[in-house]
Amino acid sequence: MKKLSMKTTLLAIIILVINACKAQENAPTPYGPVPTENQIRWQEMEFYAFIHFSTNTFTNQEWGYGAADDAQLFNPSNLDCDQWARVCKEAGMKGIILTAKHHSGFCLWPTETTDYSVKNSPWMDGKGDIVGDLAKACKKYGLKLGIYISPWDRNHSSYGIVDANGSSPYVENIFRKQIEECLTKYGEIFEIWFDGANGGDGYYGGAKTVRRIDRKTYYDWPNTYKMIRSLQPNCVIWNDKGDRADLRWVGTESGYVGETNWSLLYKTGDVPKKMLRYGVEDGDAWVPGEVNTSIRPGWFYHESEDSRVKNLPKLMETYYKSIGRNGTFLLNFPIDKRGLIHENDEKEVLAFAKAIKETFATDLAKNAKIIASNVRDNNKKFGAINVTDGNKDTYWSTDDSVKTASLIIDFDKPKTMNRFLVQENIRLGQRIKSFTLEAFVNGEWKQLKDQLVANGNGTTTIGYKRIISFSTIHASKLRFTVTETKACPVISNIEVYNAPQILVPPVIMREKSGNLIITPSDKESEIYYTLDETMPTPTSKKYLGPIATDGKKVTIKAIAYEASSKKNSSVAEEKFDIAKKNWVVINTTDPKATDAIDGNVNTTWYQGNNSKMPIDIVVDLGKIEELIGFRYLPSQSYPPGIFTHYQFYTSNDNKNWELVDEGEFSNIKNNPLWQTKIFPLESARYIKLRAEKNTLSNDSVGYAEIDIITK
Ligand code: FUL
C-alpha cells in the first residue's frame, strides 16, 4: 500500500476535525420542500421588469388576432432597447422579461418558424432583431434577460390541431422550435414565461376559427420542460397552467399576493385559483409566487392611458404587497409606438426607486442589541447577533423542542420607526406559521395591531422576506415573537426603518347627478383641484364638498396637501364624459339596475340568473347624443359576472336597432378593468349592450358601470 505523505495525513485530520465540529454544531435540518439554487437566485432578484411590445402596440389592442393584424403594421419610429435597459437599471431592477411572442403570434426576432415576425415588418427593412438588441442592452447594463413566449398562438394555422396519431404539429415543430431559438441564440436566460394560454382557442387567418384544446395535455409540458432544462439549466420556468413549474402566478394581475404566502404548492394538479394567492401550507413542492402587474392599466401601450400610470404611492403599496410578502415584483412597461418606455412611466418608476432608497437607507436594527429567548444549544453559531450581521447565510435558531420564541431588538434610546423587515433562511424550508410584533413605548409593551391579520392570529408567514408597515412610533425596543412554527425558527435577517410618509392622491368620481365627489385617503390632508386642465397647487380651489357641474364633459385634477409638512400628493386626474343624470335602464323593473349607471364603480347590477345568454342592458340616454364609443367596467368584487364577448347597438326609437360594434374584451378575466371601444360616429338616444359569453360559462352578467364616449 502506498504510504500517505505527512501533508496529506495532516489535511485528512483537519477535515475530520472540521466535520466532527460541524456535526456537533447540530444545525437545524431542512423542513419540508426547499428551493433549488435557481429558485433562490431568482428570489434574490426581487424586482425586475416585464416588457409588452408587439403588433398590439400599433393596433391599440390587448390581444391581437394574429393574421388579421398585418406584420406591416409593426413599425416603431425610434426603437431603443438601450433606453429600456437604462430605465430598468436606474429603477433598481435586476432583469427584463420580454414578450418575444404574445398571443397574436408575432415574433420579435427573425424566427425560422413563421413569416409573422419582424422579418416581414417595415422596421429596419425587416433586418432587425429585438430579442437580440435587448440581450445586448441587458448585458451592457448588467441585467438578466427573460423570455415570454405565448403558447396560445392566434396566427399559426396549425395551432390546436392534433393528428390522428396524437401528435401536435404546432407544439412539436413551431412552439418548441421558437423556445429553442430563444434559448440558444441570446445567451443566458434567467426566466421563461408561459402565460396561461388564456383563451386557449385558435383564432387564425382573420376568421374566427375556434379549436378547443385540452390545456392539460395539448402542450406536452413535461417534454417542453425537459428541453428547456437541457438548453438553459439555470433558467426558471413560470407557468400557471398545465404541469407545475418553478414559479407560480398569484391569481391576480392587480399587484399583490396574500399576507399569508407559502412558497409551497402540491406536486400534482392545479390548486383553486384563490389558493394561488396564499400558497398551500402543507404543499409538497417549492413553488414561490411572482407578483406580475403593469405600470398602466393595460399590458400593452394605449395612448389613452398616458395619465393612468401607477404613481409613487401605488407602486410603494405594490412593493409592500409583493416583495414585502414573500413574493417577487414583476413590473410591466408597455413600450409605446416609438419603441420607448414612455416618459410618464419613466418618471413614476424613478420616483419610486428614489423613495425605496430613502426608505431603506438607515437600518435602525444595525446597532441595536439583540436578545433571544432561546438559542440553539446555547451555541453562538446560532446566536441572535446573526440577524443583524448582514450575512444572509448566518441565522438565529432555537432548540428543536422550542415552538415559540422571541427576539428583543433593544435600541437603547427611543427611536422613530414604522417598518419591520424579517427573513427566514429558506434553504432550510419555510417554517414559520405566525408571529407577532410588539413595541416598548412609554414603559410598556404594545401590540402593533394595525398589521395583524383577521382573527388577531399574528402576522402569519414570513418566507424569504416579510415587511410589516405600522404607524410611526417612538419605541426603545421591538419584540418579535414566533407564535407558531412547523419546526424551530431559522431567522437570517432583521431590519428596522423609519420610512418617510407619502401622501396618497384622492379618489374622484362623478355621481349620476353630474356632481363631482373627491375623497381624500386620510382625514388630515386638504384637497385642492382644478377644472381647467391646469396642475392643482395649494393655491387652487379648495374642495369643500360636492362640486356641481353643468353636466357636460369635464376634466378634473386634484391633489392632497398636508399643511403641517407642506407636502402634496401626486395628481389624481379623471376625465368624465357627459353626466348620466337623465339616463334610465329601461329593459328591467329591478331598481338595482341604476347601479350600472350611477357613477359609482363600487356598486354592481347583476342580471341573468334565469335567462340565457345573450343578455342585454338597454339604456335611454334621455336625448339624442353623438356617440363615438362606449365603456364597460365589470364588477370589482365577487361575484364577477364578467362577459368577454359583446355586441353594441344603438337606436332612436327603442325598436329599430343598429349593430355598431362587436368583439371581445381581451384579458378581462385576469385584469377586470374599464374596457373602451371606439366606433364611427352614431347619433342615438338608446343604447343596447349585449353580453354574449361570460368567463364562467354561466349566464350571470354584472355591470359595475357602463358609460358612453361622445364626440
Ligand atoms: C396574460 C396575457 O393574456 C396578458 O395579455 C398579459 O400578457 C399577461 C402578462 O398575461 O396571461
UniProtKB/TrEMBL annotation:
EC class: hydrolase
Gene3D superfamilies cross-referenced by the UniProt entry: Galactose-binding domain-like, Glycosidases
Enzyme Commission identifier(s): 3.2.1.51
UniProt GO cellular component terms: lysosome
Cross-referenced PROSITE patterns: FA58C_3 (PS50022)
Signal peptide span: 1-23
Residue spans crossing the bilayer: none
Gene Ontology biological-process entries: fucose metabolic process; glycoside catabolic process
Cited SMART domains: Alpha_L_fucos
Keywords from the UniProt entry: Glycosidase, Hydrolase, Signal
Keyword Transcription regulation among UniProt keywords: no
GO MF annotation: an example: alpha-L-fucosidase activity
Location of the F5/8 type C domain: 353-499, 560-711
PANTHER family in alphabetical order: ALPHA-L-FUCOSIDASE, ALPHA-L-FUCOSIDASE-RELATED
Family per record: Belongs to the glycosyl hydrolase 29 family.
Protein name: alpha-L-fucosidase
Native source organism of the sequence: Wocania arenilitoris
